Automatic annotation (TrEMBL):
Gene3D superfamilies on file: 3.40.50.2300
Name of the protein in its database record: Sugar ABC transporter substrate-binding protein
A Pfam family the protein falls into: Peripla_BP_4
GO molecular function: carbohydrate binding
Subcellular location field: Cell envelope
Alphabetic keyword roster: Signal
Similarity field: Belongs to the bacterial solute-binding protein 2 family.
Domain Periplasmic binding protein: 72-326
Main subcellular location: other
Domain of life: Bacteria
GO cellular component: cell envelope
Span of the signal peptide: 1-21
Length: 372
């Protein structure tokens, strides 16, 4: 569908400025700041906001291999995406008849290395690398390979699919480029091409670093959008550092700061107190979109108009089920599925009654594959 057709379809449902992007509508700012970029962004945002798409993932694969055990090594369980995916792994493991243990790396290299070492000492059938760069744990990865323990990553590499250096059976994530582009496109659409943006990122995580670079690249396609600042705050430090940084940004940019985008929704939970103290309205600027991971608290902020307007959620529970399915393929000697979930945007307009992005069909599909 062409951009003009999509725009017309959206406007038939009653669009004012920014309405097609969902959430609160900013004040009119005159003509679009970048008509060509805006048209493409509006079309992409319209597609990403759909909630009625059928399951497009795997429908074939090996039957359940019995008696397996997994250990999920988490970067930090304070990262809602990591925690949400771990919950999905537990649910799927129960469905297939396996055991799971989750070990928390506490967000530090030493903690992650210790957790991974403990995981291998448990002699599991497989280990999940949950949200951290496996190069931080090169010794543990080498030992896992020596012990013939398959590794499946979640947000462990920049790209989905099997990894070569280091070798992972597969890495599960949406495509970082898709998430980055749609987050920036939402800002372009919602602002009608006029925005002053602050980007929050964690440069210690390669996946996050790549995502933030791609967000900046897409924002730059609109001449009316300015990147005011890029704040590098480790995910493990958001609660201690974000409030002070937000206060400083408000003092520095004032009303010129109209939009925020972050590589993880958790930044907006920690930004809220400082914005509230500055007497900013929860449904007003800076309008915020999280480029991952769409945990329940993010949905609550979005649906309640509390300092977050949109999120690009990972289907965390679905991805937990995919992790288990990928291990089952590894144990059966089959290749990885190759499935990559499409991006989705959640706003108050399309998610008012839910607290997660949970697409239809995957549980039944995986159970049919496994024969459970």
């Amino acid at each position: 569908m062409g951009a003009a057709v999509v725009l017309a379809a959206v406007c038939l449902t009653g669009c004012a400025r920014g309405t097609s992007a969902g959430g609160a509508v900013p004040p009119a700012t005159g003509p679009p700041g970048c008509p060509t970029a805006l048209a493409g962004a509006e079309a992409a945002v319209h597609r990403a906001q759909r909630t009625d798409a059928a399951w497009d993932g795997p429908t074939r694969g090996p039957r359940a291999v019995p008696g397996k055990s997994l250990v999920y090594v988490a970067q930090t369980m304070t990262n809602p995406g990591v925690a949400g995916t771990a919950t999905g792994v537990r649910e799927a493991a129960e469905a297939i008849g396996w055991s799971v243990r989750v070990l928390d790396g506490q967000g530090t290299p030493a903690g992650i290395q210790a957790a991974f070492g403990q995981a291998l000492a448990l002699r599991p059938s497989g280990v999940v690398i949950g949200g951290f760069d496996p190069r931080l744990t090169s010794q543990q990865v080498a030992k896992a390979h020596a012990d013939h323990v398959p590794l499946v990553g979640w947000h462990a590499l920049d790209t989905p699919g099997p990894g070569r250096d280091p070798a992972l059976f597969t890495n599960i994530t949406t495509r970082v480029g898709d998430v980055a582009r749609i987050s920036a496109d939402w800002i372009i659409t919602h602002s009608r091409g006029h925005a002053g943006v602050v980007l929050f990122t964690d440069a210690s995580i390669p996946f996050a670093r790549t995502k933030s670079e791609l967000i900046k690249k897409e924002l730059a396609t609109c001449s009316g959008v300015r990147l005011l600042a890029e704040e590098n705050i480790p995910v493990s430090d958001t609660s201690s550092r974000t409030p002070q940084e937000v206060s400083a940004l408000l003092a520095r940019f004032g009303d010129g700061w109209t939009y925020s985008v972050a590589i993880n929704d958790v930044y907006f939970a920690d930004a809220a107190p400082a914005l509230r103290a500055a007497r900013r309205k929860g449904a007003g600027p800076p309008f915020a979109i999280g480029a991952g991971d769409g945990d329940p608290s993010a949905f609550q902020r979005v649906n309640g108009g509390q300092f977050q307007t949109a999120t690009v959620p990972e289907a965390l529970t679905e991805q937990g089920w995919q992790i288990v399915d990928e291990f089952n393929r590894a144990f059966a000697g089959a290749p990885a599925s190759g499935y990559v979930a499409p991006v989705h945007i959640a706003t108050s307009a399309n998610s008012a009654s839910v607290t997660s992005w949970d697409p239809r069909g995957y549980r039944a599909a995986y159970r049919r594959i496994w024969g459970t």
